[in-house]
Amino acid sequence: MTVRVVVPGSTSNLGAGFDFLGIAINLQLKAELADGEGPPEYSGTLEGMDPEQDIVYRILRAAGVTDGTTLILHSDIPLSRGLGSSGAATVAGFSLAAAAKGDAFDGDMIFELARQIEGHPDNVGPCVYGGAVLAARRPTKLMVSTDLALAFAIPDDLMDTVDARRFLPTSVPREIAVEQAARAAALVRGIATGDPELISFGMVDRLAVPYRKDSIKGFETAVAAAREAGAFGTTISGSGSTLVSITSEGKAKLVSEALAFGLKQKGNHAVPFVSNIREKGVSFGY
Q1: 149/27 same-domain check
Q2: Are residues 131 and 148 in the same domain?
Q3: pTM for this one?
Q4: pLDDT tens-digit series, residues 231-249
Q5: Phi, psi (5° rounding) for residue 238?
Q6: Which CB contacts under 8 angstroms, 24+ apart, belong to 165-173?
Q7: Closest by alpha carbon to 223, among 206, 194, 245?
Q8: Same structural domain for residues 89 and 69?
Q9: Least CB-packed of 9, 116, 142, 145 within 10 Å?
């Protein structure tokens, strides 16, 4: 029996929601486990991937469902850019494995398994549930204003999550912790109401961005250009190297182009990309 899943990418570490707030976006991974034994097949951003480096294949093999089957993967999620490629792969692997064994789909179980492997609940939450997800005691979908859109600039340069973590301090002063909490609360309220002032305040991160921004050439120039074009706030998507702005739907294209141009001005080639907030998480069939 052939089984297929589609999993969205995500933008995470959203502003002051570092490590607990992420949003599903309109990039996706398609994964198929087809009858008939053969080597894994890869296309899109996965072209040329080594199966031993493939998260999906490793999960399926550990689950004992690879014999007599062929794994076929196609993704339009750029790798190592902070757009949830590894989270989507982890969710796809566990979802395919469950379907191949005839288990009923349990999103909460898939989330927990993926969280343990991925280590980033703000990354896998949107992949499973769609929308904006708060990785609190339990993953919770948040209300998001329909007037909002996401504008991205995706650089050519890669960013490894493990390397990006090395920039972070091991402790922060109490006043920064308090400010971060206030900004996170403002962001949750702001995306629900579409309030530009709350979003602007909440998109300023004090825990990670100050230590990572210098690794992205043109960061400050791009942020200023996006603000001028109408961005409510801009931050690093995931651990980078992509930048993401929250803005109104009508200005998203202009903001994404401004972001990309700001990076290019400093020699960091990037492509603009616009996404609505994808409400659907992992789904079965194409």
Answers
A1: no
A2: no
A3: 0.93
A4: 999 999 998 899 999 999 9
A5: 60, -130
A6: 165/239, 167/208, 167/211, 167/212, 167/215, 168/207, 168/208, 168/211, 168/212, 169/211, 172/206, 172/207
A7: 245
A8: yes
A9: 116
